[in-house]
Amino acid sequence: MAEFDHAHFLKTLSSEPGVYRMLDSEEKVIYVGKAKNLKKRVSSYFRSNVTDSKTRVLVSNICGIDITLTNTETEALLLENNLIKKYQPRYNILLRDDKSYPYILLTSHKHPRLAFHRGSRKVKGEYFGPFPSAGAVSESLRLMQKIFPVRQCEDAYYRARSRPCLQYQLKRCSAPCVNKVSDEEYTQQVDYVRKFLTGKSHEVIADLISKMEAASKALHFELAAKIRDQIMLLRKMQEQQSISGNYAEMDVVGFAHLNGLNGIHLLMIRDHKVLGSKTYFPKVPKDSTQEEILTSFLGQYYLAPGATGRIAKEVILPFALEEAPVLSEAMSQISERKVNLKTVTRGERGQYLQLANKNALNSISVKQSTIDSINKRYAQLKATLGLDDINRMECFDISHTMGENTVASCVVFDSQGPNNKEYRRFNVTGITGGDDYAAMEFALNKRYNKLVDEDKIPDVIFIDGGKGQLSRAEQYFETWPHVKMPLLVGVAKGTSRKPGLETLLIDGGRKTIPMDSDAPALHLIQHIRDESHRFAIAGHRNKRQKQRTQSLLEEISGVGSVRRQTLLKFLGGMQGVKAANIDQLKQVPGISPDMAEKIFNHLHDKG
Predict the structure, then answer these.
(1) DSSP states of 339-394
(2) Are 567 and 577 in contact (CB under 8 A)?
(3) Per-residue pLDDT for 244 more than 50?
(4) What's the rounded mean pLDDT across residues 259-286?
(5) What's the whole-model pTM score?
(6) Which of 369, 411, 408 is nearest to 392 (CA)?
């Protein structure tokens, strides 16, 4: 791109509300902003007396600006946050931990199912939440399973049942799959679940008490006792989750800054219950103010696509924000109800705010301690290996059972520790079973043969194994075409295979690196070695299980890969296929009566 002529650009710029995208020399978006008056806001970047170093660095990289006009400032705010999420500009404050919150799903089947859900809402049904973590959803589902006997099984498993499963025996499901409960009674239990999840548990208890009294008067004592137990469990669950406060729905946002780290702690209260909390650590450009950080967080958290369900009626802020009215209007618009942003320091809400701030500060301290520990380990490892810097390390491991289902793993650590997104597994083929040396060469070739980006070349490669694996790795790198050459280190286990007794090998195993068993650098090596081992074993087990699952079906002539997948999917896995009778097998798409009988006889002959 040609040099940006900001003076000419500003002459033609509109004074209406809108969003601006600043581009660098490669036409990459480096900053996204919104303005009530575009001309006034964008002009402020190019003043001669700008003192903010962050703004000066940003302006020095601007080679172009794209503009999108909007009708209102609220529309500009919504568009701004969508574009930040899309482009992840380097000079914006970024909420990196933007995974969707988990929900509880109540499906719209004839016999609805309760289930964990995260992501797009493709399944028809009602969604309750959001919950702060997957663990909170799992715990809620587990508790509700004890109180309301509504099914939580997969649809394929539900369709394949010919008799009640173990959950029915444990009184955690009423077995609608085999008509052990009437549709009316099951629908009533589903309605109780719906009311409970929408905060109407008092209505549920009142209704259950009426049913219990009616059953007692009719001398149906067993039913009355069953309802009594249900009421007791429901009240116990309320006691565990209730708080002493008077606020039904509220988010409390705590903020802390320490040693260059910024932490934002979100405390979620729904239906007079503390639903959970979580601390976020946004990626923050240098010299960003606390107001900028909090404003960006609120916009990206609450105004992201699909975030409607997480917006509380009231959000308590740790300090006043200039853009609070605009944020409030935008949040009200997308949630279709009034949302208030308040700064409160007294009373109950003030106590919650103190708690949120305290948690934010504590989370920063914990994170700082972790960072310090990692830095110490890296510093000692650099000194031990004689390297100026270590920005990237990779470790390879091989896993198999008696030479079968060989899987190689590659895990990646950067300066912050494990980088899970860069982890890779390779299904090893075309070698003699059990030949770990050949498997290692196969993995290295798969990993680096088509490497183009030299920034992805590791500073150190750890090979989990002895001299043989290390020598084969060094042979591979003899024809290495790149300028940067990684240091190869073999990690050989001691005779007792206990941590701390590893031998570090270099130069084809001809030299060893002495290291104390309690050395932080060795702990870092053990960490990356254990990660590669865990990742390889997990891949190997998945491959082995898949092979075992399909092996019996593969033995049946006429049952190809498409039919195998259909059977497994329709009947809920191999256990469902084995448990199915001939009539149930005939219901599977693509399975004829003769084929169903053939499959049934083969599986049961195999015992």
Answers:
(1) -EEE---SHHHHHHHHHHHHHHHHHHHHHHHHHHHHHHHHHHHHHHHT-S--SEEE
(2) yes
(3) no
(4) 82
(5) 0.62
(6) 411
CA distances from 237 to 102, 145, 268, 295, 569 (A): 20, 12, 18, 36, 36
Peptide bond into 130 cis (omega under 30): yes
Q: What DSSP string runs through 439-482?
A: HHHHHHHHHHTT---GGGS-SEEEEES-HHHHHHHHHHGGG--S
Q: Which of 253-257, 297-301, 384-388, 398-402 has the lowest mean pLDDT?
A: 398-402
Q: Compute the distance between CA of residue 564 and CA of residue 549 in angstroms, rounded to an integer.
A: 10
Nearest to 64 by CA among 23, 110, 116: 23
Per-residue pLDDT tens digits for 472-515: 899 999 989 898 999 999 988 765 556 556 788 888 777 888 88
Q: Are 505 and 479 in contact (CB under 8 A)?
A: no
CA-to-CA distance for 394 and 187, rounded, in angstroms? 54
pLDDT of residue 410: 94
With residues binned 3-state (H G I as helix, E B as strand, rest as coil), the percentages for the chain, rounded to 5, are 50, 20, 35
Torsion angle of the four alpha carbons 376, 377, 379, 384, in this order, in degrees rounded to the nearest 10: 140
Token pair, residue 516, equals: 């104390």
Name, in order, each residue with C-beta under 8 angstroms of 467's C-beta and a sequence gap of 6 or more: 490, 492, 505, 508, 509
Between helices 73-87 and 290-302, what is the axis angle to 10°?
90
Of 535, 568, 530, nearest to 552 by C-alpha is 568
| Closest-CA residue to 89 (of 358, 296, 337) | 296
Alpha carbon of 34 to those of 38, 298, 322, 438, 566: distances in Å? 8, 15, 14, 57, 51
- Give, rounded to a whole angstrom, the gap between the first and last alpha carbons of the chain: 71
Distance separating alpha carbons of residues 543 and 550, to the nearest angstrom: 11
DSSP 8-state class, residue 176: G
Distance CA(528)–CA(459), nearest Å, equals 14
Q: Rounded CA gap, 564 and 559, in Å?
A: 6
Q: What pLDDT score does 297 carry?
A: 92
Mean pLDDT is lowest, of 193-202, 401-410, 426-435, 462-471, for: 193-202
Average confidence score pLDDT of the chain: 84
Nearest-angstrom CA–CA distance, 114 and 144: 9
Which residue carries 């490892």 as its tokens?
A: 381
Task: Report the distance separating Cα 236 and Cα 242, nearest Å.
Answer: 10
- Residue 307: is its pLDDT beyond 90? no
- The answer to whether the CB of 92 falls within 8 A of the CB of 293 is no
